[in-house]
Amino acid sequence: MTGTFSSVPIVDFARLSDPVTKDEELAKLREAIFLVGFLYLTNTGLETLIHHTHEALPELFALSAEAKEACNMINSPSFLGYTRLGAETTAAQTDLREQFDFGTPGAKEWTEQDPFWRRLEGPNQYPDYPGAQQLVEEYITTTDALAQTFVRLVAESLSLPANTFDGFRGNMSRLKFVKYPPAAQNSQGVGPHKDSAGLFTFLSQDNTGGLQVLNKNGQWIDVPPIEGSLVVNIQQGFEAITGGICAATTHRVIAPTSKTRYSIPFFQAARLDLTLDQLKESAAHIVQRVPTSDDQKKRAVDVPSEFLSPLYSCFGEAHLRNRIISHPDVGRRWYPELYAKYSQQILK
Ligand SMILES: O=C(O)CCC(=O)C(=O)O
Ligand SMILES: [Fe+2]
């Protein structure tokens, strides 16, 4: 194993599911998890659903401004709904994209008796587009099932029992439909970031390109589209749960210049109520049981992550802070005191 990577590896889900090829493919998965934090997952069986969903996106985004504004995220304390171009911030710069955010349906209604961060889970706002709700629900259900199987395979690839991470799963995963319009060369589609609260992200990109990941030498590596694949990456939630031995990787999207780019990221949820103490205890346990090189163990000691910051009481609060900073208009409307507090804090 070398120190860093110059391309994103491909892992074949069908081979992971076949007893004859499973061990060979698990070894590839393990290397991708440790070395890159990103991989292409091919042959997932979701190709048709992904294709149909991409087909719907141009029309969905072509709805009138009024129709889109009717489900604006500003209406939602759960940060669900439509975000127009220029209303989102990453790495202190405005992103050039518009998007719809959805969550796993069925969230329990928040009341004053619940912890404040529980309000992150709430009802969807669907655009007035035929079949939108059905499409979103099918996409979320299907991808959630794949994600669950995938996390078990990751555990096995780390020589852990398959159910090791089952107890860390959260209630509401998030799905986004994203549109990046053409822009001047080298514009920020979305700025450098790590995905936040969840376990893994499963991203379907169209054939435009523009996604890049940062390697340990500080080079941006292209993640060119592979038809039908999902680009899977580690989120900061999973990084924290594994004590940093499975690290989240920084990535960004360079805005397209001559055509519109569409993408569909799905963020698998982690438990919001996990406290820092519980997290440290379980992470220490996991780190101890995963056979890794000394170098990887060293990384495990010191993880710079919002989700390991003593500033936040639990995962839920760290995630809420992340949403408030990314969507400041929504944050100011629903959480004015928290907005004032979090926007002052500098994360180390
Ligand atoms: O659109 C993409 O390809 C990636 C988007 C992304 O990284 C994100 O929304 O977290
Ligand atoms: Fe991301």
UniProtKB/TrEMBL annotation:
Keywords: Iron, Metal-binding, Oxidoreductase
Lipoprotein is among the record's keywords: no
Keyword Membrane annotated: no
Source taxonomy: Eukaryota, Fungi, Dikarya, Ascomycota, Pezizomycotina
Species per Swiss-Prot/TrEMBL record: Penicillium bovifimosum
Stated family: Belongs to the iron/ascorbate-dependent oxidoreductase family.
GO terms assigned for molecular function: metal ion binding; oxidoreductase activity
Gene3D superfamilies named among the record's database cross-references: B-lactam Antibiotic, Isopenicillin N Synthase, Chain (2.60.120.330)
InterPro entries: DIOX_N, IPNS-like_FE2OG_OXY, IPNS-like_sf, Oxoglu/Fe-dep_dioxygenase_dom, Plant_2OG-oxidoreductases
Name of the protein described by the UniProt record: Fe2OG dioxygenase domain-containing protein
Any single GO BP term: small molecule biosynthetic process
One Pfam family cited in the UniProt record for this chain: DIOX_N
Domain (Fe2OG dioxygenase): residue spans on this chain: 170-270
